[in-house]
Amino acid sequence: MERKISADLATQETLKLAREENIQTIWDRSALQDPHCGFGMLGVCCKNCNLGPCRIDPFGEGAEFGACGADKDVIAARNLLRHTAAGSACHSDHGRDLTLALLALAQGKTQGYSIKAEEKLKDLAREFSVSIDNRPLNVIAEDLAKKMLAEYGQQEGELVFVKRAPKKRRELWRKLGIMPRGVDREITEALSRTNIGVDNDYHSLTMSMMKTALTDGWGGSMAATEISDILFGLPEPIRSQANLGVLKEDEVNIILHGHVPLLSDVVAETAMDEKLIAKAKAKGAKGINIAGVCCTANEVLVRKGIPVAGNFLQQELAIITGAVDLMIVDLQCIMPSLPRVASCFHTKIVSTHDKARFPGVEHVEFKEENAVDTAKRLIESAIENYLKRDKSRVHIPKQKTDMVVGFTAEGVFHHLGGKFRSSYRPLNNAIIEGRIRGIVAVVGCDNPKNLSGGSHIAMVKELLAHDILVVQTGCSAIACGKAGLLQPEAALEYAGLGLREVCAAVGIPPVLHSGACVDNSRILIECCNILNEGGLGEDFSDLPVAGAAPEWMSEKAIAIGWYAIASGIMVLFGSPLPVLGSENLTRFLTKELFDIVGAGWAFEEDPVKGAQLLISHVNTKREKLKLGPMLHAPLIRKERMAVTA
Ligand code: SF4
Ligand code: MSK
Q1: What is the pLDDT of residues 509-550, one digit of tens each?
Q2: Average pLDDT in the 436-458 region?
Q3: Atom of ligand 1 nearest to the CA of 52
């Protein structure tokens, strides 16, 4: 299979350098896996017990059943449920870390943290039935954090955030038996179901996927977003830049990589300390440059405007520039290869989270009670390491693109509603009147099996041409940021006339960057707000909206996809879930689920064709809502794909 390299010039250039220097990257390792295991891709291998491993012949010529008697439907469904549980656990643990930090802050056990969004804390407290009357903020925060933590282990009842969902949807979840009780409760049950000889029906296994993932979207991820806003501030539109070109030849470069903003936010703040800057200058650097990779990047980007060095696929490339003095990692999406790549340069890698360790890598345990001291220590070690940088090996690509980011559910009220009319009405009206066709969330990872970021760009451009407002999170947002789609001017070049008018009127980009992967929960809230505003139906499944992850790779993406679908929002993946070995499960996920929850999966590798499927889905929803025709014909795009093979 011919491997496709990114459309991004900085990636191409640095990859060329890596190959000249014989440094292996994800593209090389991925190619070495070709052809990927067919059984794994089809989802029909199982190693859930020691009777196996077993595999089912998808062509019906070999084994039809595993040793225990499991058929391909059960095996594929059990595997997918395990992926869903792992993805949900990852996001939910992220939310738990943030909640524990809020508790520690409330109890006076942190350094460098404060309540940055007082009103949001109070709103959340009310939602969790925590009294706020004349009580100090820290007492409110303590009670709130304890209640939120208790909910993780709740055995009966319903998650509090679920009350935000439309009544009709909640009733459906109850009727289907997929209303989530507690985060840990459902994840444990999911894993229990997948043990040998427990749940042997792909239908009920699928229902468990949705129930488990709902604990992510309406539980752990939503908690992560809300508490991040409380601790670090509500994002607001802010200018910044993306791509490897944000690294600086004459400054100490520190990369923040991972997901949980607990340390990264403090590092970004601490790096502005005049004494530390003076220390860097004393070593010959002009300053301290902080940049991010992956979703930690998105967290500090949308709140502080810290530039992004790259998305998932660029983490090794950042080191290969030879200009990174320190890479601080926490957890999730951190390639195990990083220490090997770093060993070719002076770059120091420091792990900071107890759950994410690397052999041979210095571990500086991060604790909230000494966050600032830890940040200082790390920055000082980067300054020391700057002296070891071999200037002759520094090769920073020049590419960096301006962007405007930081659009939240609350922000949409402000921007699309206008300064003096905080309301979703103008947004709803733009959809109803046919200026905006609908809204699609294009999110998720970048993947060398696809077009390495290019699929996001091609899909988003096609959607924009059809007057679809695009909301983004994660590495997808970074890919589009690098391509210049997160600038207000992008509306003039890529958006259809209706969307262009709306963007020009309020001065927003046609693609709204909403944050990190956990912030897909913001998109759920935006959908709630659109429904509450009225005129576009009563349930998520009525809305002209959809979700897509053209280059998904993480189990977290599966969990996100599932909670969107369980909520009634159709999701398209650029490569199929590993279920195609089971015709029954595939049909259930891609067809029959639409009749059960009003949404299901679609798979399409070609990003433009994928966009067309999404557009057609949005059109169907518009017809069902009896909305009038669009005011303008779609934009005819000269180029379909700005992607090289
Ligand atoms: Fe094989 Fe069944 Fe054991 Fe899976 S659970 S490894 S299919 S015997
Ligand atoms: S970092 S989960 S590669 S979006 Fe959130 Fe990017 Fe996917 Fe990780």
Answers
A1: 999 999 999 999 999 999 999 999 999 999 999 999 999 999
A2: 94
A3: 6
Does the beta carbon of 552 lie inside 6 Å of ligand 2?
no
Q: What is the sign, positive or negative, of the torsion defined by CA atoms of 267, 273, 275, 277?
A: positive
* Nearest residue by C-alpha to atom 2 in ligand 1: 68
Q: Cα(553) to centroid of ligand 1, in Å?
A: 25
Q: pLDDT tens-digit profile of 308-336?
A: 999 999 999 999 999 999 999 999 999 99
Give 354: exposed, middle or buried? Use CB within 10 Å, 0-12, 13-18, 19+.
Answer: exposed
Ligand 1 pocket check: which of 50, 65, 73, 75 to mutate, most ligand atoms within 8 Å of Cβ?
75
Let me know: does 490 contact 510? Beta carbons within 8 Å. Answer: yes
**CB-side neighbour CA atoms (13 Å) of 12:** 13
Domains of the chain: 72-232 (1.20.1270.30), 244-393 (3.40.50.2030), 401-624 (3.40.50.2030)
Per-residue model confidence (pLDDT) at position 410: 86
How large a percentage of the chain has pLDDT more than 70? 97
> Is the entire prediction scored with pTM above 0.70?
yes
CA angle 31, 33, 39 (to 5 degrees): 135
Closest ligand 2 atom, CA of 311? 6
Atom of ligand 1 nearest to the CA of 74: 7
CB of residue 196 inside a 6 A radius of ligand 1 = yes
